[in-house]
């Protein structure tokens, strides 16, 4: 296990605002940013578009994430292919993975449904850790609000997996890296 780096990731999923009982569906984007805990620098980033097998991208989803159906059609790959790529480039089970909230559960649920292996063994919920470190008592605290508390400005468009993972790695640096 490599304890010198944390691989931050963010998922974007198919979503709707039309009264469906399930408001989120299959994963359509995985953003990844690797933080070197010794230097506090983000050393690697990646953006992967995932082609859903059963869901479609709604106009609401496009408005929220900026992800259009034709972008997924052109650049999307099956989840299994994306997971193999992340494992090869970021170290898979040999690294600690982290996200804001329960993206691990979402990924595991979809992997189970598609009979795929989750690519990590170690997972950190940075939302819980941040609230513990900063003594935040709000039941729900979004990543952007946490960044404001930490004095880190948001960069880029929110609800882009690529951007959200990058910003999460920047926030993680304030939590785990020495301030010199």
UniProtKB/TrEMBL annotation:
Specify whether Nuclease is a keyword of the entry.
Answer: yes
A Pfam family hit: RNase_T
**Source taxon at top rank:** Bacteria
Q: Where are the transmembrane segments?
A: none
Q: Give EC number(s), comma-separated.
A: 3.1.-.-
Its keywords, alphabetically, are: Exonuclease, Hydrolase, Nuclease
Q: Identify the PANTHER family for this entry.
A: 3'-5' EXONUCLEASE ERI1-RELATED (PTHR23044), 3'-5' EXORIBONUCLEASE 1-RELATED (PTHR23044:SF61)
Segments forming domain Exonuclease: 5-180
Keyword flag Kinase: no
GO MF terms listed in the record are:
3'-5'-RNA exonuclease activity; nucleic acid binding
> Which CDD domains does this entry report, sorted A to Z?
ERI-1_3'hExo_like
Native species: Photobacterium toruni
Q: What class of enzyme is it?
A: hydrolase
Q: What is this protein called?
A: Exonuclease
Lineage per the UniProt record: Bacteria, Pseudomonadati, Pseudomonadota, Gammaproteobacteria, Vibrionales
């Amino acid at each position: 296990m490599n304890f010198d780096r944390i691989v931050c990731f963010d998922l974007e999923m198919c979503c709707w605002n039309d009264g469906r009982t399930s408001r989120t569906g299959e994963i359509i984007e995985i953003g990844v940013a690797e933080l070197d805990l010794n230097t506090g620098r983000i050393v690697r980033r990646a953006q992967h578009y995932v082609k859903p097998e059963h869901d479609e991208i709604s106009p609401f989803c496009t408005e929220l994430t900026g992800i259009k159906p034709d972008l997924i059609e052109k650049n999307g790959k099956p989840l299994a292919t994306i997971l193999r790529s992340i494992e090869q480039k970021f170290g898979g089970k040999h690294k600690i993975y982290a996200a804001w909230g329960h993206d691990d559960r979402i990924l595991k649920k979809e992997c189970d449904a598609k009979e795929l292996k989750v690519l990590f063994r170690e997972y950190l919920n940075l939302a819980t850790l941040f609230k513990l470190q900063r003594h935040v008592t709000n039941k729900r605290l979004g990543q952007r609000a946490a960044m404001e508390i930490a004095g880190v400005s948001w960069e880029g468009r929110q609800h882009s997996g690529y951007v959200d993972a990058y910003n999460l790695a920047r926030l993680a640096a304030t939590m785990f890296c020495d301030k010199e």
